[in-house]
Amino acid sequence: MKSYLPDFELVSPKTLNEALAVMANQPGARPLAGGTDLMVQLDNGTLKPGLFVDLQAVAELSDGVRMDGGAHLGAMTTFRSARQHPELVRRYPMLATAAREVGVLAIQARGTWAGNIANASPAADGVPALMVYRAQVELQSAEGKRVIPLADFYTGYKQMNKKSNELITDIQLPAPPPRRFEYYRKVGARRFQAISKVLLAAWIVLEKDQVVDISLSLGSVAPHTLRVRNTEALLTGKTLTPGLMKDARDSVHAEVSPIDDIRSTAAYRRTVAANLVVDFLTKVLAQGGA
Ligand SMILES: Cc1cc2nc3c(=O)[nH]c(=O)nc-3n(C[C@H](O)[C@H](O)[C@H](O)COP(=O)(O)OP(=O)(O)OC[C@H]3O[C@@H](n4cnc5c(N)ncnc54)[C@H](O)[C@@H]3O)c2cc1C
């Protein structure tokens, strides 16, 4: 039985430029935010000890939320900070719902949204909510800054459109449409402290039962969290009818690519993912649209 973490090296830059310089000059350096994923990986041996770049003291990487026409989550913003920000919760309620799903309060107090994104688990609870709100990820390196949609960020299992010298420095959220119907449902082995078998985050805007805008993001049903864009396209511009819902079910079925693992089977995940989308659309209709 292991009692101690292996030795590792830690640097604690005070400014973003210092942090980016370490990332540029020390290949293999790993950003360390809350450490709630990294320390587990270090302990169980899936991550080799090396150089960690502690982001806690970097002045520009705040644990803060900034509201403008949309919202910005600083790179060190924790799940707890988001839950405790009344204006963010009012305008983006699914962020609070997602944050409540993450581990226990101690994990919510340490774990960051940026860490949830960069850990790239297909079962992450925060990423589907951010994706459905059409979040954009700001990345910075010593060479400059770029912004990419979170929905285009992942390229495969634990693979991202992020260079090894880049840091996530901001998560940008555009203003969501005011009259929308939202849905966030995590299916796991138990109500709390479970890794999802399937997760759907979604919103829809209807006008006279016709879909004018829709965002559907699924977790645990593919190598990475994804938006099911074919199903979104199938629904957009149409009137919600039982026939269209059946087509949506078939479309989700075809669009996901789950695996069998210790938590569930591919067949179960595919069926439940399709059922969740139909459940969402059925609830929308039952409530008379958004
Ligand atoms: C007991 C326990 C329960 C948990 N339960 C859940 C759960 O229910 N749902 C869930 O989704 N997750 C859960 N997690 C996982 C974890 O808490 C989250 O993924 C969290 O968001 C990670 O954030 P962090 O700040 O701790 O990341 P860290 O562990 O510090 O880093 C995670 C990864 O992100 C990278 N990274 C961090 N910040 C940046 C940055 N700014 N730029 C570039 N790369 C960066 C790191 O290098 C690392 O690869 C749990 C973990 C534990 C230990």
**Ligands (ions, cofactors included):** flavin-adenine dinucleotide
Averaged pLDDT: 94
Portion of residues within helices: 25-40%
The CA-CA distance between the termini, in Å, is 54 Å
Count of β-strands: 14
Largest sheet: 5 strands, antiparallel
Determine the strand fraction and express it as a percent band: 15-25%
Radius of gyration: 19 Å
* Number of helices, counting only DSSP H or I runs of 4 residues or more: 11
Task: Summarize the model shown.
The chain is of the alpha+beta class and 290 residues long.
Q: Overview of this structure, please?
A:
There is one protein chain. The protein is an alpha+beta fold. Helix content is 34%, strand content 24%. It is built from eleven helices and 14 strands. The chain has helices at residues 16-25, 38-44, 79-83, 86-91, 93-101, 105-110, 113-119, 126-132, 229-235, 242-255, 266-286; strands at 9-11, 30-32, 51-54, 65-67, 71-74, 136-141, 144-149, 154-156, 159-160, 167-173, 181-187, 198-207, 210-219, 226-227. A five-stranded antiparallel beta sheet has the order 4-5-10-6-7. A hairpin with a 3-residue loop joins strand 4 and strand 5. Helix 5 packs antiparallel against helix 8, helix 9 (229-235) runs antiparallel to helix 10 and helix 10 (242-255) packs antiparallel against helix 11. The longest helix has 21 residues, at 266-286. It is globular, with a radius of gyration of 19 Å. The model has no long low-confidence stretch (mean pLDDT 94).
